[in-house]
Amino acid sequence: MGISKYRILYPKTRTASQILGSFKNQGIQSAQEHALDGGGNYAEYISDLKEPSLYTVKAILILDNDGDRLFAKYYDDTYPSVKEQKAFEKNIFNKTHRTDSEIALLEGLTVVYKSSIDLYFYVIGSSYENELMLMAVLNCLFDSLSQMLRKNVEKRALLENMEGLFLAVDEIVDGGVILESDPQQVVHRVALRGEDVPLTEQTVSQVYLFSLHPPSGFEFFWNFPN
């Protein structure tokens, strides 16, 4: 949706609320609600419309049934510190782990999620992001792991196959940009990359060292079963 298109449709004398009504009649997604709170004019409303962006995903999270982090990858600086990230994760878990819905709006973000036994999967985007795009990423990740773990998508199996999880996430999303939504393709590429680096005690050690010195924006916590 280009901003210039709407600059020629409505005179500047019309209020934001009037424009919003017109947009809804045309089936056009509205701008953020806070732009309407003060009954701002057309120019203010138009400035809040967002240009399309390839950077769809802000974060991918996997938590256990206590809300503790098993995997987290953030693609921007919405939550720049580990403390802020963990507070957000605890909040998101508290708001979603007892609900049956699949979509939530939290802290100005769109969250899509699903659970499996003792795992909770989350894909996060901006408040104006298309939920179907985020859900496609979530389903691709879950279905890919389901195939890789032979439908045993639970905490112990995931912890024993973290290398596959790393590779799968990298195949699906890169820097917040969606690369792949077909789980068959993801599993195939992960298998090819896995052949280059056999899963031995040496590669497990490499993953452990990777977790001690992750790249910027990547956080990983080891949670060994009792």
Written description of the protein model:
The protein has 226 residues and is of the alpha+beta class. It has helices spanning 3-7, 16-25, 42-47, 82-96, 131-148, 155-159, 162-172, 183-196, 201-212, and strands at residues 59-64, 69-74, 103-106, 109-116, 119-126, 173-174, 177-178, 218-219. The strands form 2 sheets. A 6-stranded antiparallel beta sheet has the order 3-4-5-1-2-8. Strands 6-7 form a two-stranded antiparallel ribbon. A hairpin with a 2-residue loop joins strand 4 (109-116) and strand 5. The protein is globular and about 40 Å long. The N and C termini lie far apart (52 Å). The model is unreliable at 1-16, 23-48, 199-206 and 220-226 (pLDDT under 50).
* Secondary-structure element string: HHHEEHEEEHHHEEHHE
- Detail the poorly predicted runs: 1-16, 23-48, 199-206, 220-226
Tell me the helix content.
40-55%
Overall shape: it is globular
Distance between the termini: 52 Å
Mean pLDDT: 76
What is the topology, as strand order, of the major beta sheet? 3-4-5-1-2-8
Which strand-content bin applies to the residues?
15-25%
The strand count comes to 8
Radius of gyration: 20 Å
